[in-house]
């Protein structure tokens, strides 16, 4: 079945460009468009898309708040959010990831990257690489807690090995790289990552990276955690 995509951007020309790219793919179907966050919420309820391609800066309701409502506890469907951003709006990406976005993509990314990102997010994975998320968290560390706050109780539910894996996820390592670092199989790493997400109530690796920073487990700028 085709991946159902909702396009959300306040610039009609950009929506048209994205639609042309996506409709050329056999496994992707653009089911609707919205020009702001409020329209996006209505369309998500009506159309039940799999992936929402979400702009950040929009009138009436921005992409961060729309993402929060689409992916929050009162969500009406399975939609995942892939945020669109530009270099000069990076500071908003951290908030979008906290709000529940499964990842982000630069607006000037090549067409094949856009299509691949939608496929990855639709499959339940995070997009883009955790290393990109980590660079953003490092750059905008002032938006995060100081790390002096008490360690969340949920962190104590993890085993020592799961804590190790969470740190490596936050550093931006792939499953294969974590496996090599810990001298275990990639399947074992996937199992550990799954346990971490389940125990902490997180949806994907992006949220795990954010959690690792906000809990103080990993500190911004510390490359060798």
From TrEMBL:
Pfam families: GerE, Response_reg. This is DNA-binding response regulator. The keyword GTP-binding does not apply. InterPro entries: CheY-like_superfamily, NreC/VraR/RcsB-like_REC, Sig_transdc_resp-reg_C-effctor, Sig_transdc_resp-reg_receiver, Tscrpt_reg_LuxR_C, WalR-like. GO terms for biological process: phosphorelay signal transduction system; regulation of DNA-templated transcription. It comes from Streptomyces koyangensis. It comes from the Bacteria. Residues 4-122 form the Response regulatory domain. The lineage of its organism: Bacteria, Bacillati, Actinomycetota, Actinomycetes, Kitasatosporales.
């Amino acid at each position: 079945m085709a991946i159902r995509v909702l396009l959300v951007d306040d610039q009609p020309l950009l929506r048209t460009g994205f639609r042309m790219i996506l409709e050329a793919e056999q496994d992707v179907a653009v089911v609707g468009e919205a020009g702001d966050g409020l329209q996006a919420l209505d369309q998500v309820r009506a159309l039940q898309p799999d992936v929402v391609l979400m702009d950040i800066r929009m009138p009436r309701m921005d992409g961060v708040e729309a993402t929060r409502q689409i992916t929050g506890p009162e969500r009406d469907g399975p939609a995942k959010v892939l945020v669109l951003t530009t270099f000069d709006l990076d500071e908003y990406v951290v908030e979008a990831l906290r709000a529940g976005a499964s990842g982000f993509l630069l607006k000037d990314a090549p067409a094949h990257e856009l299509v691949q990102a939608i496929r990855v997010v639709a499959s339940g994975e995070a997009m883009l690489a955790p290393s990109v998320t980590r660079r953003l968290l490092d750059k905008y560390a002032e938006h995060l807690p100081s790390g002096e706050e008490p360690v969340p109780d949920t962190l104590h539910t993890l085993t020592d090995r799961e804590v190790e894996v969470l740190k490596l996820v936050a550093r931006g390592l792939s499953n294969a790289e974590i496996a090599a670092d810990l001298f275990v199989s990639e399947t074992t790493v996937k199992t550990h990552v799954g346990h971490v997400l389940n125990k902490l109530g997180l949806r994907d690796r992006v949220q795990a990276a954010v959690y690792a920073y906000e809990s103080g487990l990993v500190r911004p700028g510390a490359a060798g955690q």
